[in-house]
């Protein structure tokens, strides 16, 4: 039996090795590995039987690695109505939103009494610019329980039947770390549930969708593959879904690698589970570490800041001095860090506001001191979003060897909103990638899909341009080069997963995970990077997507 050998040439073969762009004339793969990177003449001499692939001046680089998204939530959107505003969806008004939900019931032939779910609405982009209310949903769907998830993933709106199902009334207190919003001057819930108050609705949705997970699984992989992604992440995975993913992998249904971050609330049970092999792929799936959610969403005004939001937050009861809210107490986060560090369990911590970042720095110091561990041990602790991190906090992360995973898509989707809510100084400092680059961080940059599309080239575009919907530049000093932005979804992303020896660059001995683009992100005009098309996605040497 002969091993397939493929030689790629006549293109921009960008290796992603080193601090500046390096190109090769030829790349050879054999089976699932890269076996040669270099001169074309030498490649042809060394591998005379190789199948030649003419790139026709297209660009070949390492396949994209997803630093942070929610694979399972993406999958579950396939059973929901899309309420996203342009350019993702078509919803611009609350009336359009209500009509879309009503039409979805008709199109899907959903009977009275059955749950209806929607996702992706953005109050900042609606006319009028507010959340819908339970009464508005009741008016179009009086006979179904309905829950509509906000684009941030940190809140949603339920109608009367859905609230009643969850036993939420005027007398229901706010859960710790959450908020049940009310009508002005009333205790009556208006349908908006934020942070931990939305968890029961999400749990119920997952329970109802569980029988459909298998149907959605392959479609979700194809969605990632078409974007050039060969390593995807599920950013907060309950135990039953961990076992579902492993079952799919063991049945040979994974086309790509899938990395899960287990819910930290299950840490004790997960550590005792012999079936979980931390940081070890089993048929393409692995549980990498654990995920902590420290605060909320900046565009939803629940991210936790040291200074208040500048715009009013209805129903917060804070007298115009709202700073958002932590999802956990300092003591709870301290304990989570301690348990994880005690067992060398890699932590990924969602932190948007600077007050939440203060909390994780304190927790890191607490756990290291209590365990007598070095503050800068190579744990690959990841600060997910680190959206509005202060310069002094970045210095602490550098000192403590904690890597940030930024989210520059916010500059486009909510840059204008952040200027309004936080002021220019804070808004322009979001995802400070140029500063992080100059400090030597191995930063990554993610989509947080379903929050924004998983498309890594969109993330590169937002990191390079930082242009908002209105055309405002959100922090010109934090723009980075296209090459630096590509590092964040290739080499640095591999490092984040302890996979720097096997992925992320075109290096002999690494796996043949490749992507072919119709244009070179380093040479096209910066404003056109988002328009580059993925032509092929190659996993372990095999083409798994071809747009031609």
**First-last Cα distance:** 30 Å
| Main β-sheet description | 8 strands, mixed
Overall strand count: 22
How many helices does DSSP assign? 19
Please tell me what the overall shape is. globular
Low confidence ranges: 315-319
**How big a fraction of the residues is strand?**
15-25%
Q: Give the overall pLDDT as a whole number.
A: 95
Gyration radius, in Å: 23 Å
What's the helical proportion of residues? 25-40%
Q: What structural category do the secondary elements indicate? A: alpha/beta
Oligomer description = single chain
List the helices and strands and how they pair.
Layout: E1 5-14, E2 23-30, E3 33-38, H1 40-46, E4 51-54, E5 59-62, E6 64-65, H2 71-76, E7 81-82, H3 94-107, E8 116-121, H4 134-140, E9 146-150, E10 155-158, H5 160-165, E11 178-182, E12 189-195, H6 199-209, H7 213-225, E13 229-237, H8 239-250, E14 257-263, H9 267-271, E15 285-293, H10 330-342, E16 347-351, H11 354-371, E17 382-385, H12 391-400, E18 403-406, H13 409-413, H14 415-422, H15 424-428, H16 433-439, E19 444-445, H17 456-465, H18 482-487, H19 491-496, E20 514-517, E21 534-539, E22 542-546
Parallel strand pairs: 1-4, 1-5, 6-13, 7-8, 8-9, 13-14, 14-15, 15-16, 16-17, 17-18, 18-19
Antiparallel strand pairs: 1-2, 2-3, 5-20, 9-10, 10-12, 11-12, 20-21, 21-22
